[in-house]
Amino acid sequence: MGRLVAERIQDDIFRGRLLPREPLIEAELAGAYGVSKTPVREALSSLARGGLVEMDPFRGARVRNFTADDVREIYEMRALLEPFALEKAVPRMDENDRDLLFSLLDDADAAAERKDLYDLSELNRNFHDALVTRCANGRIIETMDHIQDQLRAIALRSWKLKPTYLREAEQHRGVAKAVRSGDAHHASDLLRTHIVEFEQQFVLALEPEPTESKTGQIKRR
Predict the structure, then answer these.
(1) Which pLDDT tens digit goes with each residue over 101-139?
(2) How far is 149 from 73, CA to CA, in rounded Å?
(3) What gap in Å lies between CA 66 and CA 210, rounded to an integer?
């Protein structure tokens, strides 16, 4: 039951029904989902381990508000692991694996066309999962899976501020074409470039805008 409740809370976060910094009160969530407080408590603990929820012993649980510093940390780790995993995965991929990449990209193009950011973010996650699933390193896959929901939340928030998903789709196609050609090193390089570029984009989108104080000094909000 806790897992099902976690999925519902996660879905509400991704769909914007639960907003960054919003308190997550066990009794209210239990009433909304028609369950007892025990599975809600289990769900919040699980989501906290996954990075979507913050737990504070005094203020309780709330939806994580991803900051520019959070993005830097997550993307630094991603830039190290994901291109490495892709380079290992490419020689192990078969035609079905390669076809899946292009099928996911086609579906993502359709989601972008109808501006369905929720579906687009899920397809984006599935594409990146498919890039590394054949890397034969369970710990890397587990680590990447652990941060993918955080990446999805970051992308959804950033896209609403600055819709960069068409540029991302273009780069995804380049990575998929390199995978299809069997050039693991080139695919890895393209993926690394993609990650670094969008780390910068997302940091800029989430960075507080500077404001001028009465002394004329620039401060961050």
Answers:
(1) 999 999 999 999 999 999 999 999 999 999 999 999 999
(2) 15
(3) 18
Instruction: Identify whether the C-beta of residue 11 lies closer than 8 Å to the C-beta of residue 52.
Output: no
Distance of CA 145 to the CA centre of its chain: 10
pLDDT of residue 1: 79
**152 with 65: CB under 8 angstroms?**
no
In degrees rounded to 5, what are phi and psi of residue 71? Answer: -60, -45
Task: Name the token pair of 112.
Answer: 């972008």
Q: What is the pTM of this model?
A: 0.87
**Between vectors from CA 185 to CA 184 and to CA 191, what angle results, nearest 5°?**
90
- Please report which confidence band the pLDDT of residue 208 belongs to, taking 50, 70 and 90 as the band edges: low
183-201 residue pLDDT tens: 999 999 999 999 998 888 7
CA dihedral 208, 205, 194, 85 (to 10 degrees): 60
Tell me how far apart the alpha carbons of residues 41 and 2 are, in angstroms, rounded to a whole number: 8
DSSP code at position 53: E
CB proximity list for 183: less than 8 A, separation 6 or greater: 90
| 3 state DSSP class of 58 | coil
| Neighbour-count burial of 22, counting CB atoms closer than 10 A to its CB (0-12 exposed, 13-18 middle, 19+ buried) | middle
